[in-house]
Amino acid sequence: MDRLLSLLPLLACSVGMGLIMWSVMRMPSGHTVPPEESVAVPERLMLEPVLSGLNADDQATRLRAQLQAVMAQQSAIAAQIESLTVREIANSQEAAALRSTPMVISRES
Asked: Would residue 105 count as lying in a domain?
């Protein structure tokens, strides 16, 4: 009888977990993953619909122009990251210098 009582919490935990899992599986989920074709793509990343009516050389020219624009944006973002990193390093070095400077307290009468 003592052995049965010692196993009761273990069984209750397992059965309780199973019931919770079962109830979660049965509830309708509000977090469904949309199919790929319904995922919104930002307009700036979509190809222009006019590309389909152009010949291969014109398509390549437009795509090269888009690539240049994206590369310019990437360079601007990289420059922003660099300036933020430099500023963060400078701030952390100033803070370290302040922490390492001994405080001098003078008592003037």
From this structure: no
Does pTM top 0.90 for this prediction?
no
Domain that holds residue 88: 51-100
Residue 43 lies in a domain: no
DSSP letters of the chain? Answer: -HHHHHHHHHHHHHHHHHHHHHHHHHSPPS-PPPPGGGS---GGGSPPGGGGGS-HHHHHHHHHHHHHHHHHHHHHHHHHHHHHHHHHHHHHHHHHHHHHSPP------
Residue 39 covered by a domain:
no
26-43 pLDDT per residue, tens? 877 665 555 555 556 566
Number of domains in the chain: 1
Low-confidence ranges of the chain (pLDDT < 50): none
In angstroms and rounded to an integer, the radius of gyration of the C-alpha atoms of the chain is: 32
C-alpha dist (Å) from residue 46 to 2, 27, 42, 49, 81: 70, 37, 7, 9, 26
